[in-house]
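Fold these two proteins, one after the other.
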Amino acid sequence: MTKGRSDLWIALVAAVAIAALAYAVHVQDAATPSTFSTFDRGPNGYAALFAALRTAGVPVRRLEVPLARMTHPPAVLVVSSARRYLGGNPLARADRARLAAFVRRGGRLVVLAWGFARHRLALATMPTTIAARTHRAFALVRDADTADVIVVRAPSDAVFRFRSDGAPLLANRHGVVALRYRLGRGDVIAIAAPQLWSNRWIGRADNARFAYDVLAHRGPVAFDEYVQGYARRASAWNVIPMSVKIATALVLVTLVVAVAGANLPFAGRVPAEPPDERGSAAYLDAIAALLRRGGGARTAIAAFARDAAARPSRAPWAERARDALAELRARDAPTAVDVLAAARLDYRLRKERG
């Protein structure tokens, strides 16, 4: 395989690797859903709400440890819908106990989820929901949690029943979308529309006003990000975006291909040119070629014949050599082959006689 062809194969391998990784980026971006997290800038994320609260001067932070290890409890804890807590897996026993104690000691728990019917966050009084598709809800009471709120807009697949325990805050003809109930010295705000405060819907109607009324004026606010999979002890590789990981993989693949192309042989060994060690035969060939180009073939053969005649020998082969020289000398148009033959015959006679 030539050098140019091996470079072509290296380029093809690199192109295939880049295309495969680019397709992986596309598939990953298409398959990754937007979650109800303050880190998420997608349609369902709460990044806009988190930034708005900070801009408004509300002390807000993210909780990235299990609830049982929460060292400085906030005044308001927000838990948004996620599979780990409100989906398939319940809270650990220590987390359930810490969450209940947090509310009973005077904290406010704000829960945004659809799955209240199956998972109650270990709070026995958590109401259940019924299936109902809604996009709008109106404020039913006028208090600190609904001040200046008239209507909110966000899609929801569930509502609370009108006869649920607690004070309804937002409702429509299908049922209650948000309600508040007491638990010990604290209270729980249950909202059946987690998209109400999402990046896509936070700017609609009075959604932002409702979020500010519920979360502000009480003290520090914390969003539980551990429920979304963000752990403080996670490694740097786990928290960097997928696009950065794929870019790093592209760089590594390119380096591997470059190193392989520079160091690994892609063809058989090519032997080096033999050393230029020419002998007397090469010298005679060169002289014969010069004589042929100069038209001196007859002169050269005559010189070889005279030199051979001056070196008599009785050996049978010597007589045959002189006869052959005489025959070559008698030719009208001797060729380069004839000159070489005469030179070899004369050389043999000279070597014999010294």
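Now the second one:
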Amino acid sequence: MTTTALQANMKAQRRDNIKTGRAHLLIVEDEQDLRDLLSYNLEKEGFRATAVETGEQGLLKAAKDRPDLVVLDLMLPGIDGLEVCRSLKSDKDTADIPIVMVTAKGEEADIVAGLELGADDYITKPFSPRVLLARVKAVLRRKQAVGSTDSDDHAIDLGDMIIIPERHEVRIGENRVDLTATEFKLLHLLAKRPGRVFTRQQIITAVHGGMSAVTDRSVDVQVVTLRRKLGERGSDIETVRGVGYRYRDSW
């Protein structure tokens, strides 16, 4: 089997694991009590969990087993979580594995850095198992939804609001929302990954092509204007203090 065919087979297997509720999760956490607690609660929900205590072990396990998702503590001995995230996302064989970061409270700079490196979500300590399960399920659900379509032209149905990229059109009920090209790109970016946090820099890169003239403040102003135009649906765009923005997920 060729390398390309093997990668496609692994991706298909991951989608099947997620669909059948038997997703394989890799936990990288150096605190044994927390490692055991995470494994217990995830397995109780039907997941298969593998737990390791160092970044080095995490990289080896991810490369060997290709888990469906990694729960990654940032404060690790040796290779820290940010370096693990960078390594996983820079390797074509593991780049598509979703990562949920676990951080200590107040580590905003590390959260932003992790998201910029490609992590999918984060959770701050202390947290309840229910919150972790909700985040993990939401990320897996988003991953499956993204994998089910190969086109950015795919319409996004959000109940009474629908986004139609090929027409550059947004409708709420029977009413068309008049958005500028930038506002449409911003809404589409957030809405196609509900629940995922985007930093301001990621928004600048995706929406404005990384233009140096566009500042964090400019993004904030654009979000305010977009929320106003969306009316009651504007509250679906949530501010993640110190980090960026996300479109509200149903979890």
